[in-house]
Each structure stands twice: as C-alpha cells, then as structure tokens.
Write a structure and sequence with these properties.
Distance between the termini: 40 Å
Structural class: alpha+beta
Number of helices: 2
Helix content: 25-40%
Shape: elongated
Strand order of the largest sheet: 1-2
Oligomer: single chain
Order of helices and strands: HHEEEE
Radius of gyration: 20 Å
Number of strands: 4
Largest sheet: 2 strands, antiparallel
Strand content: 15-25%
C-alpha cells in the first residue's frame, strides 16, 4: 500500500542495560500470545467451513474471507474501503429478535 515505506521504517525499542532481562521476558510473552492467537485463528478457519468470496464495491477486487468472519465488516486490503462479509441468516442462533430489521 505504501510502496517501500514499511521496508524503510523498522521500529526499534531501546531499553537500559538493567532492563534487558525484563524486556526479553515481555517480548517472549508477547510472541507466545501472538503464536497462540494465530493457531486459534487457523483452527477456527479450518473448522468454520469454506471461504466467503466478496466483491469490493469500490475497487471491484475479488476478496476471500474466512467463514468465521461472516456478518462482519472488514477493510478491503486493496483500497481500504469497508466490505460486508456475507449475510447473517435470520435463523442463525445469534440473531436476536431486537435486532431484526423493521419492514419498510
């Protein structure tokens, strides 16, 4: 999206020598939680069913989202526009009566 900007800007964290051990523990904990979250996402996607194909209204890109994202609004990775991912069935157990659309 920004060309080579991500390659140029590589954030760095500086800590004092006395905090190195603590900083390493914080980073290791962060990396462990990221790995656990990514594993959970992969498991949910593999159990959730086939991917949902969506066409971006703005740039007309063909996008694919996990079926676990059905009923959500995501950003188009190409143009950044909002994309509705699938529709929630009214028979879905998460559909609440108070949320039913009114007849127009």
């Amino acid at each position: 999206m920004f060309g080579i900007l991500p390659e140029i800007h590589k954030p760095q964290v500086w800590v004092s020598a006395r905090d190195v051990d603590r900083a390493q523990r914080v980073l290791q904990d962060y990396e462990r939680r990221v790995a656990e979250r990514n594993q959970a996402i992969r498991q949910n996607e593999s159990n959730a069913g086939p991917a949902i194909e969506v066409l971006c209204d703005e740039c007309k890109a063909k996008l694919f989202f996990s079926s676990a994202q059905r009923g959500t609004v995501q950003d188009c990775p190409r143009c950044g526009a909002y994309v509705d991912v699938g529709q929630i069935d009214e028979g879905d157990p998460f559909w609440l009566e108070d949320d039913e659309p009114e007849d127009v």
